[in-house]
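Model it.
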Amino acid sequence: MILQILIIIIYSIALILIFLYALAQLNLLFNYLSSKNKEDNSPKFNLNNTDEIPYVTIQLPVYNELYVMERLLNNIAKIDYPKDKLEIQVLDDSTDESFENTKKHIAKLQRTGLDIQHVLRENRKNFKAGALKEGLKIAKGEFIAIFDADFLPQKDWLHLTIPYFKDKEIGVVQTRWGHINRNYSILTKVQAFALDAHFTLEQVGRNSKGHFINFNGTAGVWRKECILDAGNWQGDTLTEDLDLSYRAQLKNWKFKYLEDVETPAELPVVISATRTQQFRWNKGGAENFRKMMWKVLKNENISAKTKIHGILHLLNSTMFFCILIVAVLSIPMLYIKNEYAHLRPYFYVMSFFVISTIIFFICYWFMYKQIYGGGFKKFINYIGMFLTFFSVAMGFSLHNSIAVIEGHLGKRSDFIRTPKFNINSITDSWKGNKYLKKNISVNVVFEGLLMLYFAFGMYSAFIVGDQGGDFGLFPFHLMLFLGFGYVFFKSISFKT
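Modeled.
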């Protein structure tokens, strides 16, 4: 019975943590909806007045981006801003043939009168954080706009963001990511669904009430003074953007989030690339929890509610670990439930926590409606998309949990860039991309085993107990079976 009690305790703790996170998401939904009734009266620079136009540096941190460099440079060259107040830094750590191609293209743009510099360094120390810090040493701009290689800002992007820095307390202006290839595959649709929730519900919900948000690593602008005051870029976590964001806000800098300014970008179209990105984001989140938790809790200048949201924000990736625990233990719990009749009241209480899924369903619906529109037909489409997203997200839970555990334990690893593909439409192909890895991680084998494990869970629904089975967890196990099956088969087939 000791083992059964231990399983029940661990299962209950994981369920409660998920529930608390769901309640925080519900609070963010209320914040999001209430923000729609507020007018934005922020002071703004008048960029029609030449005396108010500040100097801006655009930083493009790149590393072996053979397939998207030309697209990136051509797009950035179209940015509408006075040439005498604009500098572009290509922070190039490349080690392949893309370096020479980039060098030539920069020379071509320089001949048009564009102030664009090819910034190099001797080694890739601290990876992206190191490149940004190196470029900052010689940056002329008072404000630093940053774009990853797969982002395509509109030509008026600086006109839509820079004016908000008239408020001297604003340290960062962040824009919403768009997705140029959201409908390319199930994988891109699921990624877009998750990111849309972050860039609507979470960013607006936190920012509208003064809670901490994060610069998303790209498609945003920093006040140079803010970067330096917060301690500059640091490479001791895999998410240097989240790290600097929290350090800046702990020093009372304000962040401005612009939901209505969309910056298009390309989503990874191959599951190996998605794995790389997910691992970096989730491990970096856990690393930042270790680094920032006590600094947030001890800070006397922020409210208790902001501290709670901040801690849950930093624990965002840890929810994958909680989900994995609940998933794996749900099958033993099914047998315990039907073996020990005296525990039935406990299971009645635990059934309450299905409300966590209902809360997520409601929160994500408002996000979906904001982007796609409402109506009965859209709602039916949303149900299918939500179930698909939840299944695939749970299928990634083992992979992401390993990243989270490594982050919490302080295991260091290199910053592995996400391969870019130059995928703009459903007809474009990624095949032949030289940056794709063909090796299969041992984790994929365990994902295949988990697929079979949850197939056993579905089978168990028919045989447990003496009342003709117990199907309460059958839908959950079906989604897990489909999610792990999707991740497993896509990982071994190298297809989208």
